[in-house]
Write a structure and sequence with these properties.
The protein has 175 residues and is α+β, with helices and mostly antiparallel strands. It contains four helices and six strands.
Length: 175
């Protein structure tokens, strides 16, 4: 089945972990650091670093947004349990979306838009993104305050890696 992708990320509506509808357009003018998360596995420690980054930059026009995915196995099936693990075990206060499919026909429009834009970006700037579907947990997608994808980082890239933070800081609307 062919899915029509939204032209702009700001045309996408998502559901948060508590079941509330969110318009990504509400974050227009902010740098958004989307990260595909799980609550198990070695990379889960990245949640603490992501929270630190959110705390450091949130007053400068910045959001971290978690996209929990069951694609990699081990993720609780219940959104409430995912929220509890992220909020209580890892002190996450940044927005958490409802568990999302990241591949196939049921892939969310947000993840499809992100991976499609990464494929386009990789054609022009291979050092900033890699093409194709989601491959691992904790992949990161950085959206500029103008709604363009700035970069896609592997799940193995630490959330506070120098090149990632330099990119974020250079695009923050409030310096």
């Amino acid at each position: 089945m062919e899915h029509q992708l939204p032209e702009s990320i700001y045309d996408i509506t998502v559901t948060d972990i508590d079941g509330e509808q969110l318009d990504i357009a509400d974050w227009e003018g902010h740098v958004i650091y989307f990260v595909l998360t799980t609550t198990s596995g070695e990379e889960v420690r990245q949640l603490n670093d992501l929270q630190d980054i959110f705390d450091e930059f949130m007053m400068r026009g910045f959001f971290v947004v978690a996209i929990p995915t069951r694609h990699f196995g081990g993720e609780p099936q219940d959104a409430e349990e995912i929220a509890e693990i992220m909020r209580e075990d890892h002190d996450v206060s940044f927005p958490i979306l409802a568990p999302t499919e990241t591949t196939g026909d049921t892939c969310s429009s947000l993840v499809r838009w992100l991976t499609d834009q990464a494929t386009v970006l990789a054609q022009h700037s291979p050092s900033l993104a890699f093409p194709g579907p989601v491959r691992q947990p904790f992949e990161k997608f950085i959206i500029g305050d103008d709604g363009r994808l700035l970069a896609r980082f592997s799940g193995h890239t630490e959330p506070d890696h120098d090149s990632l933070l330099e990119l974020v800081e250079s695009h923050l609307p409030v310096q």
